[in-house]
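Internal QA ticket QA-208
Title: Verify multi-chain structure generation after dependency bump
Assignee: T.L.

Test input:
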Amino acid sequence: MAKHMHLSGFMIHCPAPHTMLSWVHDEKVATHRWHEPGYWQSIAQTLERGKFDMFFFADQWAAYDIYKDTMDPVLQYAVQFPVHDPVVLIPALSAVTKKLGFTVTMSTTFYPPYMLARKLSTLDHVTQGRIGWNIVTSFHRNEMRNFGIDELIPHDERYARAEEYIDVCKRLWGSWDPDAVVMDMQHGLFADPAKIRKIDFKGKWYSCTGPASVIPSPQGTPYLVQAGASAAGRDYAAQHAEAIFGLQLSPESMRVFVDDIAQRARKFGRKPEDIKIMWGVIPIVGKTAEEAAEKERTLMARIPLEAGMALMSAHFGIDLSKYELDAPLKQMDIPGIQGILDAFISMPGKTITLRDAVTRYGAGVAMPHIVGTPEQVADRMEQLLLQGGGDGFQISPGYYAPAYFQDIVELLIPVLQERGLFRKEYSGATLRDHMSQQRG
Amino acid sequence: MAKHMHLSGFMIHCPAPHTMLSWVHDEKVATHRWHEPGYWQSIAQTLERGKFDMFFFADQWAAYDIYKDTMDPVLQYAVQFPVHDPVVLIPALSAVTKKLGFTVTMSTTFYPPYMLARKLSTLDHVTQGRIGWNIVTSFHRNEMRNFGIDELIPHDERYARAEEYIDVCKRLWGSWDPDAVVMDMQHGLFADPAKIRKIDFKGKWYSCTGPASVIPSPQGTPYLVQAGASAAGRDYAAQHAEAIFGLQLSPESMRVFVDDIAQRARKFGRKPEDIKIMWGVIPIVGKTAEEAAEKERTLMARIPLEAGMALMSAHFGIDLSKYELDAPLKQMDIPGIQGILDAFISMPGKTITLRDAVTRYGAGVAMPHIVGTPEQVADRMEQLLLQGGGDGFQISPGYYAPAYFQDIVELLIPVLQERGLFRKEYSGATLRDHMSQQRG
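Actual output:
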């Protein structure tokens, strides 16, 4: 049997995070909509009912226009755009939940470190210990241009800067001793100044005087999450992250990733088991195998080719309009993208042309669909962890999110719980507690 | 009779906003505390019960150390520090209220304009049309140093930059036509690309490509508030603000301010009546005049001299430790601060030494206490608007905030409502609706 797993709801504060047109729904399903707080609150409450560890928000700061050099298909089909700010959504979700954690993506390129450290510490107070930070260094040309930054920072310098950045943050989070606040009402004393220090940081890229403007928060530091894919990114994650979000399409490539992270973790003096690895997946669950298959056929049939092309072109920085859509994929040579195409080619099914690959990408980016009855899906999830390793899954909604997560929580979670693979109750109060919980 | 007035709760996300040691409370009063969301949620619910227009959050990004060149008294007495982030608190308050508006202070120096515009538009969605922006250009040396900015931007350049800044924001807020989003489920079309435009802004200080990453929000643009005191600041406010927050200690100086803003508004082609002026005040209400006077004596007796010295030194940029505390104030010459001292000298009572002035400042900054029975306080508020002009009040808590606002809402508001000076019900849904409401 696989070990106890961790589960996260994986979205973006946008109409359709990873499956194109998943904002489309049957009118019977729900009345509230993606740009209203009630939509997100209902999803958060569903995830908490299912005892999920957390609700994870990816983010980006611009629309893509790599494909055909235009934003039009991105706007027409809501291809990961518009993207509303996730940081100011989360407190509206923590207000209607008690236990569910929240991890938010914030970029070291766009937030000054003093601002980021302050927002996260405040969020840890507002959520009462339930906040995580997904650390990203941003890269997209269009994001830079929205911030008036003309030149891209070279990739490796990005991580050198990110090192210094997290150093500033950690110094700020440590600038108040845990017992610095006394709040002595009798003598009118708020804090002991001897237990609060300036940080007087002067680095190559950042400088900051401090101290932090927020008193020590329930978790002290936010729960740290990372998703680096490059060598520099993996080193950074192996050094700092408490959880890593991984995208792999097969148990074999999962295992390679797990072993690589373990090796890097040891290099930095950390135990591999102290870094949780969470895999992006899109389970499609039905009461019968046929119902599940029909759900997947419906969502696949809905993916507009132009949306998939715009999405995949943007993620890989290649304008795919220049390639032949219907030639056999095996014969094609598209620089920088061959790895993902090979993975699609090797997957079961008839995915053999670029058109097929693009449609599949539009239906879930590089996350596998796991389609079947609750028992079949639970089997596959257990098997993935046994064969590929890692600690759990980031579950992205394959169709209209409120209905999707209801299906997951009502159909799949009870099976995982019965098998002893997932908690029946939260044992702690904070996100870090949840991610450390060993047994259900 | 004065016209219908507008009311705002005026705080900072900190232990004791404008009255030193107002975090101290009688244990009977409440169990929750200032760093917990429940504390702020209860205050927001009280304000909404009292039909307040809004809950206004001032902000700052550092601790002060002008007084004696140390942060120690600031830390010891919580002198407007620690200050938790207000932007991520507000969604937790809008989640437990339906009508109350929220105005948040965000600095044009520390937030990049694309980030600020996105956060405010998202907040307008999350609060369903109840967000306002208090526009500030920051200035404090210590704030700059937390952001690694060594040199202060000259005052007038600050406002020239702020002009360009708001231009970028308004272009972003206008980059989607109101009918750009179609969400046509039948054809799978999200938006009409022809109705969404890049802004391609290249200015002297800012550049930004756009379009906005947020769809048009309920208010379109956040409600714009400003508090400029200098000539450049007043021009900026007269040009852009829908409401101005004013601090004056007498009806005569209020009238001078109102006339000055009216003149500047006309210069920019605006009607003076389209700019609401809200005065900072601290009503201390008791069931009897003696109970109110006793409340004020208690809070005044609590103000630590060092806290008042640190606060006043910081706000005026002068280390007051260098001056004689007990000499008659009239004989002193303290550069840059004489205006406020003259105002204190001219107020009724025995405020005649620097010690007295500093204690008074620590008890409410430059906001007058209005002390008495509900009828007496209502008389004074009505009189202030009749004599001084303006449209309403920003009410800062003179003592422990949850209890303070309960007293205001239970004792004072009903008297204002009976006199037809304040609404009995909200007539609209958005903050802009509330601030435009003419009758109760």
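Spot checks passed. Chain B touches chain A through 74 residues (CB under 8 Å).
Status: verified.
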